[in-house]
Amino acid sequence: MHRANITLGIGGALLLVWIVTALGAPWLAPYSPVGIDFSALAQPPSWAHWFGTDNYGRDVLSRVMYGGRQVLLVAPAATLLGLTLGAAIGLATTYFGHWVDEAIMRVLDAVMALPIVVLALLALTVLGPSTLNVILVIGLVFSPLIARTVRAQALVETRREYVAAARLRGESALYVMAVEILPNVRGPLIVEGTIRVGYAVFTAATLGFLGLGVQPPTPDWGLMVSEGQAQLTVAPWVVLFPALAIVFVVVAVSLVADGLRERLQG
After folding, report:
1. Are 70 and 78 in contact, with CB atoms under 8 Å apart?
2. 3-state secondary structure at position 54
3. DSSP 176
4. Strand, helix or coil at 244?
5. What is the pTM of this model?
6. SS3 call for 234
7. How far apart are CA 234 and CA 42, in angstroms?
8. Measured torsion, CA atoms of residues 24, 27, 30, 32, in degrees rounded to the nearest 10
9. Contact at 8 Å (CB) between 34 and 215?
10. Residue 158 in contact with residue 185, Cβ under 8 Å?
């Protein structure tokens, strides 16, 4: 339990740094994230520009800080959507069982046969790049994985006496699923949701790298890495710092998820 608290505390502190930096970017960032300065093109890190500048003279530190705002919007929103849909599907398949469970799970198995990024890539190619579409697509592709987690836990709970008692009282299916079963699977659901936030950060960055997320000149970590590829040998800091920001957030979320899991198991 002591180790779980330490892991959770470290992860939480790192996440807090990200959140404060992202939300406070308009006041903390030293420069405009889209301001072009032709007198400071591709300059290395210095006292004037701690993370250096890109080939447009834009301050990389300011762009990384503002890029965190985009991640802070997309990752939690997409995860919340995935949790809502996944929990609803997982509870419904468990409660109704039989052919409903079989039919839905076979469809989900077929969907999960493809990698998440490939599914998101196909969907965004059709829908077009935008922040809203990224949230919708990531949430949708996460829902089958979350549904399987909820289903596994709910299968145990549906055999409990309190569920049978609720059915005997004549409670509706929605009531039994939402009021009786869901509160008893929320622990694993919270852990799963925390893990999915990390995956959402990485997926959103990958989509941004492929040009299917936020469009230039709006700062986005994945897009910044993509744009900086051409400068990798002459200005590696343009790629290094947004890439490190992605790693920072994913590690922080992973630590929180590990801490929560250990506390629940303890």
Report:
1. no
2. coil
3. I
4. helix
5. 0.88
6. coil
7. 8
8. 90
9. no
10. no
Close Cβ partners of 84 (under 8 Å, ≥ 6 residues apart): none
CA-CA distance, 139 to 199, in Å (whole number)?
11
Our measurement of the distance from residue 12's CA atom to the centroid of its chain's CA atoms, rounded to an integer in Å, reads 16
Q: Distances from the Cα of 50 to the Cαs of 18, 20, 25, 43, 235, in angstroms?
A: 17, 19, 15, 10, 14
pLDDT tens column, 169-209:
888 888 888 888 888 888 888 888 888 998 999 888 988 88
8 close to 256: Cβ distance less than 8 angstroms: yes
DSSP annotation string for 77-132: HHHHHHHHHHHHHHHHHHHH-HHHHHHHHHHHHHHHTS-HHHHHHHHHHHH-S-HH
**Tokens 């622990």 -> residue:** 187
Q: pLDDT digit string (tens) for 4-53?
A: 678 888 888 999 999 999 999 999 999 999 888 888 888 999 999 999 99
